TrEMBL record:
Lineage of source species: Bacteria, Bacillati, Actinomycetota, Actinomycetes, Micrococcales
InterPro entries noted in UniProt: Ferritin-like_SF
Protein name as it appears in the record: Ferritin-like domain-containing protein
Organism this protein belongs to: Herbiconiux aconitum
Length: 274
């Protein structure tokens, strides 16, 4: 039901905005086209295959996936109502489809948990803290928190992609391809959001984001350490690589250094046919 409502909202918004000039039209088109690509990729996940993982590694990965399943389950209502105030219906349409993609990730993790015979979590402190932080802040800060979560998660999904379990590998590959684009989507939104902010303001925002990113990477390295090790990645290596992903995204997102002015929006790496 919820999915149907989101699809309806998306279609209406895309139609209304088709004559507009939003820089996010390319993103709305990308997310629309991505629906068919998801179906193709999902069909290749070998759900019926046996897991070669030891029972200890299976428990470690299942406990870790439980937290990610919960984190990606949100309906994005707060995010969408904050964005709606700005009146860019094309961005709103893209945002609806973005939230749907996150919900699909949650469903994929849920299916992987079911294969392991593990129930999803009702709540977890790390998800609760993230939700409270997001609700306290405005749109730009909420998008910044998404950027932090997604750059850190990128390395986590990369680790899962190295798992000996073919289902975990398949799910990770599917989610990774989306997250690469999500990070670019958040960068474009933040670039627009910081366009009229002074260099000092942008530096301050970036410094605050770095503080949260350091905390987030550290929490994931500790909290998901057994799962990372089960996939052959040392938590300290994960920590360094996750923060490198954030550093690469923070430059263009906060318009730092050579990204200060003039650059075109990132757009998706695979533009949808127009
Ligand atoms: Fe996701
Ligand atoms: Fe994402």
């Amino acid at each position: 039901m919820r999915q149907q409502e989101l699809s309806k909202t998306s279609t209406n918004a895309t139609t209304e905005a088709s004559a507009g000039t939003s820089a996010f039209a390319v993103w709305a088109d990308y997310f629309e086209a991505n629906l068919a690509r998801h179906d193709r990729l999902d069909a290749h996940i070998p759900w019926g295959s046996a897991s070669p993982l030891s029972s200890a590694d299976r428990v470690a990965i299942a406990q870790s996936l439980q937290r990610f399943e919960l984190g990606e389950r949100g309906e994005g209502t707060g995010l969408m109502s904050k964005a709606g105030v700005r009146g860019d219906v094309v961005y709103d349409a893209a945002l609806v489809l973005f939230v749907q993609e996150e919900q699909k990730h949650s469903a994929l993790f849920g299916s992987a948990l079911k294969r392991f015979g593990v129930e999803p979590l009702a709540e977890h402190w790390s998800d609760g803290a993230f939700v409270v932080l997001r609700r306290l802040m405005g749109l730009r800060t909420e998008i910044t928190l998404f950027l932090i979560a997604e750059t850190v998660a990128l390395e986590y999904f990369g680790a899962l992609h190295g798992s000996p379990d073919p289902v975990i590998r398949g799910v990770a590959e599917r989610v990774l391809t989306d997250e690469v684009e999500h990070i670019r989507f958040q960068i474009d939104q933040l670039r627009a959001g910081f366009e009229r902010v002074s260099p000092a303001g942008r530096m301050l925002a970036a410094a605050a984001a770095w503080t949260v990113a350091l905390g987030a990477a550290t929490v994931v390295a500790f909290d998901h350490g057994p799962a990372l090790r089960a996939c052959g990645l040392r938590p300290l290596t994960f920590w360094g690589r996750a923060l490198r992903h954030f550093r690469l995204a923070a430059g263009p997102a906060f318009r730092l250094g050579r990204h200060a002015a003039g650059a075109a929006p990132h757009g998706p790496t695979v533009p949808a046919p127009r």
